[in-house]
Amino acid sequence: MPSHADSPFMLFPPPYGSFLPIVPEEGFPGRSRILRGAALIWTLRRGQGRRILEWIAQRPPGLALVVVLPPGDELESVEGRVLEVAETARPQSVLPHHPGLTPEEMVALLRRAPPDLATEFVDYLIWREMPLDQDTRRVIRRIVELGSELTTLKAVCRGLYLSRRALGRRFRRRGLPVPSHWLQFSRLLRAASLLQSKRSALFNVACSLGYPDGFTLSNQMERMVGVRPTVARERLGLDWFIESWLEVEWQNGGLRVPLAHLPKRVAEDMEEKQDGAQATRAEAPVDESAPMVAERRAPDPAETDEGEDGDAPTSGDGSGEVSEAPEDTDAGSTSASSGDGDEAEGVDPTERSGEAA
Questions:
Q1: Do 124 and 241 sit in the same domain of this protein?
Q2: pLDDT in tens, 58-74
Q3: Domain assignment of residue 123, yes or no
Q4: Which of 252, 287, 311 is the last residue of a domain?
Q5: Which of 3, 126, 243, 317 has the most other CB atoms within 10 Å of its CB?
Q6: Which helix (H) or strand (E) holds 43?
Q7: How many domains does the chain contain in total?
Q8: pLDDT per residue over 225-235, tens digit each?
């Protein structure tokens, strides 16, 4: 069993003061919030077995990976399988042999803004095995690119040469968040990158992205990602920021694709607790000496004449989301408008050509 001293792995968590050796036998922390902003440093060595490769391939999402290559004369001795795993594990950076790596150097590396934010974002979604066809990848990448200058979904749709309804249908049919949420998050992702790399004031970052002030940006980030700009600035890297947004969309029902490692929805946990309580009551011993009382139960909706028509009505396309007002609003607004009106079920014959595009 390898010890911490000869382990090829080191964890670099906030506040980024030191490296913590970690061995595969310890496993990763179960809660994703603990890993927010943490980085895993993997030094490639000769003789790393299948167990280590399986462990690194199963690292939790949101944990940035930095690969450090061995010396040049030892690189040929590293098994090809190790290099393949290092490539498919989507490392944030691959460093040359650097025996004296310091925390300050690693902080500077994690603060560095990606050269192509849109491509990095789409690559992360692909690594998370989100089922995206080629056209949808292109649309998401373009939304992120346009989000650096445009603030409304109407303007973005013009840049995509798609109608808002056609764009909404594309995302809804694939179980993805509504288009306005992709636009809003792309702006927040760019804000997090600027807060970390430029270390500019929140007000300056907000104004550069079209927000009226830092307060509006802060509220938008807390609502959509669940964190404030202070946290986004102090916890480096963007993988955990993307993962936090996916978890919020999953909990709110905007994301309907069950990706690996996503936590159970709150409603599912409550149902499991209720089922467990009912099972406990069913297994409890029955006092046969007690008088028998007729049991009353609530009527089963399936036994009534209402059937599915008796369910509570929902808005929009039946997903329970709030419909967007017809007016074209600023994507940086803190209102509850989510652009769901773009996902109306009706199809305009004049927009079929836009959907095909």
A1: yes
A2: 888 999 999 998 887 77
A3: yes
A4: 252
A5: 243
A6: strand 39-43
A7: 2
A8: 999 999 999 99
